[in-house]
């Protein structure tokens, strides 16, 4: 029975490269250490667009999608702790999420508590794990510190704003429109700006008594890089963690010196959540933040899996807010 559906990229390219394909889920037989998961909700992340477009090299054909939640259908040999019918989610182990069914390594699975819906898990895990990495493992943000968050109404940005407020930071948010800035303010940002990026540093200095912020969380990339450096306090930390507007071009380290001995890092989650143990620790921390109500996960767009190309168009044209979920 070909009642399975997945998205396949056969040729690197634009959103039209996301083709749908029917398949027989019975053809997916879990090997040792694997389980077969029937996805109920699939998270969409900007990294899916980088893989589709070739910015992050992939070997076609492949199925994009870096996180999903669903129910276990079958369990392979040497799997303990999981059984058919269990509610689970995953956000590590590589792409393959844009599918109704997927073979998943059991040591990448996270059990879902009853109170967490499939949609929330699929919308939250990779993005909240990224926020946890940025804030708690890299910036070590302290209460009272002023920070700047770009794309603050977006998936990672919207979660980061709430997480930073929960630990007592003063959050200056930037977003691409007044409407998005209002969303960031509703999420708890102390200040929410939507000025052109070439006016941002001056606005941030105006809000920090001229000092600048301790840390900039920048997933926008090329377009915001200089504005971000110019917004930092002496010895501040620049975290450039994404390329939504394109990759940051090469630059001279002397640019860090002349702005006050700045620190610069370009992290990827795969270097921080790189073992089953660190994955479980990250998942436990993000579920703690979500379960306590300190962090909510707004889902701005929910569409059928077949509409993946349209979803990528909207994400890349800056017309989405919050997380995006595909439903198989
Ligand atoms: P978002 O929901 O944040 O969408 C991207 C946002 O970037 C847009 O909504 C837009 O917000 C902003 N943006 C600014 N300029 C552009 C542009 N030219 N084209 C498109 N978007 C632009 O996406 P995600 O939450 O999925 O990801 C956010 C960032 O986090 C991405 O850069 C992603 O790569 C990165 N990331 C990095 C990880 C890591 O390990 N390093 C892990 C996970 C995510 P606005 O209009 O408000 O400016």
TrEMBL record:
Record flagged with keyword Signal: no
SMART domains reported in the protein's UniProt record: PKS_ER
Keywords from the UniProt entry: NADP, Oxidoreductase
Top-rank taxon, per record: Bacteria
Entry-linked CDD domains: QOR2
Domain Enoyl reductase (ER): 13-326
Designated name of the protein: Quinone oxidoreductase
Species for this entry: Sphingomonas quercus
């Amino acid at each position: 029975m070909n009642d399975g559906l997945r998205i396949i990229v056969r040729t690197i390219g634009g959103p039209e490269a996301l083709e749908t394909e029917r398949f027989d889920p019975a053809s997916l037989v879990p090997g040792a250490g694997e389980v077969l998961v029937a996805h109920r909700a699939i998270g969409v992340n900007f990294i899916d667009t980088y893989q589709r477009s070739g910015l992050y090299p992939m070997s076609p054909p492949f199925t994009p999608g870096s996180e999903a939640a669903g129910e276990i259908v079958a369990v392979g040999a040497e799997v303990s702790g999981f059984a058919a019918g269990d509610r689970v989610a995953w956000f590590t182990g590589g792409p393959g999420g844009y599918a109704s069914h997927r073979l998943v390594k059991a040591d990448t699975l996270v059990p879902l508590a009853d109170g967490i819906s499939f949609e929330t898990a699929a919308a939250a895990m990779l993005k909240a794990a990224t926020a946890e990495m940025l804030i708690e493992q890299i910036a070590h943000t302290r209460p009272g510190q002023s920070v700047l968050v770009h794309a603050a109404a977006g998936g990672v940005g919207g979660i980061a704003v709430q997480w930073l407020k929960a630990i007592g930071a003063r959050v200056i948010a930037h977003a691409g429109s007044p409407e998005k800035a209002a969303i960031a303010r509703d999420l708890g940002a102390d200040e929410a700006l939507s000025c052109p990026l070439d006016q941002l540093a001056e606005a941030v200095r105006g809000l920090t008594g001229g000092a600048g912020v301790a840390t900039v969380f920048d997933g926008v990339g090329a377009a915001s890089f200089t504005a971000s450096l110019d917004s930092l306090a002496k010895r501040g930390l620049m975290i450039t963690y994404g390329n939504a507007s394109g990759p940051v071009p090469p630059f001279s380290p002397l640019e860090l010196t002349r702005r006050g001995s700045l620190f610069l890092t370009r992290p990827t989650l795969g270097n921080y959540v790189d073992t089953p143990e660190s994955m479980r620790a990250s998942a436990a921390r993000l579920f703690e933040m979500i379960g306590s109500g300190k962090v909510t996960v707004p889902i701005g767009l929910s569409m059928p899996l077949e509409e993946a190309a349209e979803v990528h168009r909207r994400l890349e044209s800056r017309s989405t807010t919050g997380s995006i979920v595909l439903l198989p």
